[in-house]
Amino acid sequence: MQSIRDEFEKFLQKGLILVNPHVLDEDYIPDKLLFRDEEIRRIVQYFARFLKGLSPGNLLIYGPPGVGKTHAILLVMKEFNRLVEEKGVDVRAVYVNCRDQSAAGALSSLAEILGLGTLSKNAGVNYIVSKIVKLLKEESTRYVFVFDEIDRMISTIRGRDPVENLLSVTTRLDEKVGRKVVDIVVVANTTNILNRLSASTRSKFVPETLYFRNYNLEELVKILEDRIEKAFVKGSVSPGVPRLIAAYILRGSRDLRWGLRVLKQAGIMADDKVDEELVRKAAEIVDTDLLRETIHSLSPDEFSLLFAITLVNVKGLDPTTSTVYTAYREVCDVFGYTPTSMKHLMYYVLPRLEATGLVVVSTKSLSGGKGKLLQINITESPKEFLGLLIKILEESGERVPQEIKALVGG
Questions:
Q1: Which residues are registered as beta bridge partners of 374?
Q2: Distance of alpha carbon 288 from alpha carbon 231, whole angstroms
Q3: 62 annotated ligand-binding residue
């Protein structure tokens, strides 16, 4: 490596082709979402019922990651809140991103948005709800609560699903306040969250559903071309780049957010041109970075389960739930974690881990039609992935037993 001063000089001498990098960021919301006219129309129709004095009920927006669900709801909410204020309609849409939040954390965020100040999530769900109920009783405003990424919530109470916890209290606010006050919009990757609700909560949360499909190849190409036009100097990106990234997205079960991140990485690396070869190098960097980021975001239970599944795969054992759970308890024992129950692990922890794309759950039919077994596998090369997990543990100061390191030749 050259001296630090030389590295600065080298960078300053490079041509600047990525002039609007924020256009490629995940939180950038374009004025118009391409190829989402029908979905946006459906969301508008939902919110428009308020303007006619109707109660629209609840709405579940679902679809795979990176297909525009969050951007669509935020675009409609922004215009809706502006319109009701102009027309003097006492309704307000409120957005809460629930990713990596407990039920108490999400409710604390909601309370702050409603103007209640910062309420510690450690105060507990019941206390926060009592404050929200008191506020709602003192005013006449109707609300739409939008809970985004609800399937990426975290549990802080063993045996209590955070989705059930959040929706069980928010769907009962009307009863506590004594009038119709709240409708709920939930945004998730699948409809499986409904299976996580108790019978009593499901009877309260009966949503209209709206599915966001994946983009096809040509749609991805057009979207990428649109962002390139906004982000880069004209002519600085080879014409074949959008189609190459779109093909990567569809072939590798990735999403548009990944493609935009690759574009940004390639733009940072480029001297004066982003071509196909540079995109391939950028894709490798982004894949490694995203994998590490995902692993670092896992809770102790999620990480322990992931480590256990990886060990089972490396050893070539039958990856049934019982085998994986035995391995999970052994992992917890090695690293000093407190294991949770098998029911909690498989019903609550595993779905969250599966949502990251790091593991896949399938079924295996037993001979003679005697039923089926769940099979749990990681989606990466087992031995290489185990090596990465060991490296991350050691970087954080954990000591990994030699017998585990020996599985990858360590």
A1: 363
A2: 24
A3: no
What contacts 236, CB < 8 A, 6 or more positions away?
Answer: 17, 270, 272, 273, 274
Is residue 67 annotated as involved in ligand binding? yes
Vertex 121, ends 119 and 127: CA angle to 5°?
A: 70
Q: What is the pLDDT of residues 167-191, one digit of tens each?
A: 999 999 999 999 999 999 999 998 8
Beta strands 59-62 and 182-188, pairing class: parallel
Is 215 part of any known ligand binding site?
A: yes
- Helix/strand/coil for 407: helix
Distance CA 131, CA 205 (A): 22
Give burial (CB, 10 Å; 0-12/13-18/19+) of 243.
middle
Vertex 183 angle, CA 152 and 131, to 5°? 80
> 69 a known binding residue?
yes
Q: Confirm whether residue 87 is marked as ligand binding.
A: no
Query: Residues in the chain with pLDDT < 50?
Result: none
Q: Pick from 32, 37, 74: which is nearest to 187 by CA?
A: 74
Q: Do the annotations mark residue 357 as ligand-binding?
A: no
Residue 373 and residue 363 in contact, taking contact as beta carbons nearer than 8 Å: yes
pLDDT by residue (tens digit) across 359-382? Answer: 999 887 776 666 678 899 999 999
Confirm or deny that 338 is annotated as ligand binding.
no
The three-state (H, E, C) secondary structure of 350-377, written as one string: HHHHHHCCCEEEEEEECHHHCCEEEEEE
